[in-house]
Amino acid sequence: MGIASLCCMLQVDKSEKNIAFQIYSETSLVDKILKETERFVDRDRAENHSGLMIVLRELLLNALIHGNNNVAERHIKCRIEKLEKARLRVEVEDEGSGFDYQNLDMRLPENPCLLERRGYILINALSDSIEFNSRGNCITAYVTLNQEGFWRGKSPQP
Fold first, then answer.
1. Helix (H/G/I), strand (E/B), else coil: 15
2. Is the pLDDT at 59 greater than 60, yes or no?
3. Among residues 58, 38, 140, 37, which one has the least CA distance to residue 91?
4. How many angstroms from the chain centroid is the CA of residue 115?
5. Which among 15, 47, 52, 72 is placed 20 to 30 Å from 152, CA to CA?
6. 17, 88 Cβ separation under 8 angstroms
7. Above 80 in pLDDT, residue 149?
8. In what order do the strands lie in the sheet with 18-24?
């Protein structure tokens, strides 16, 4: 495994089946993780990984904003593992105190203009399954890529 350091705030550890990151809680570093992840997934010629990118972005921003409360000195760890041809395990952990994930409402809000809970609704909709650690500061999402795109072969209804 090789370790590369970008901007001294982003550590990347890559192998054939895994890529891991550790960053400080800085919004600008989220895009760097997304670009590195795209390169990692593109090595296998994945045709459509937009669902993965949305899930990863939402997980990272949630860890940064809600988990670490935008405290720049706090770290976020992220690990992506290739499980089988088009299935990935995405784990994001922050240094926050966690939250009560068992009472998390994943239903769409009645008012579509509300921004609250939108991240977890997207993560849940675009993942095969999600898991939380007991503390609630680490979430694991299982995402399957496919050629039809992140709608899993279903077109959104007009």
1. coil
2. yes
3. 140
4. 18
5. 15
6. no
7. no
8. 2-6, 10-14, 18-24, 75-84, 87-94, 138-144, 129-132
Mean pLDDT of 84-96: 93
Is residue 96 over pLDDT 60? yes
Domains of the chain: 8-144 (3.30.565.10)
| Three-state DSSP string of 84-124 | ECCEEEEEEEECCCCCCHHHCCCCCCCCCCCCCCHHHHHHH
What three-state secondary structure class fits 79? strand
* Contact status, residue 15 vs residue 1, Cβ threshold 8 Å: yes
Sorted by sequence, the CB contacts under 8 Å of residue 79 that are 6+ apart come out as 18, 19, 20, 21, 89, 90, 91
Q: Token digits for 11? A: 């550590």
Residue 64 pLDDT exceeds 80: yes
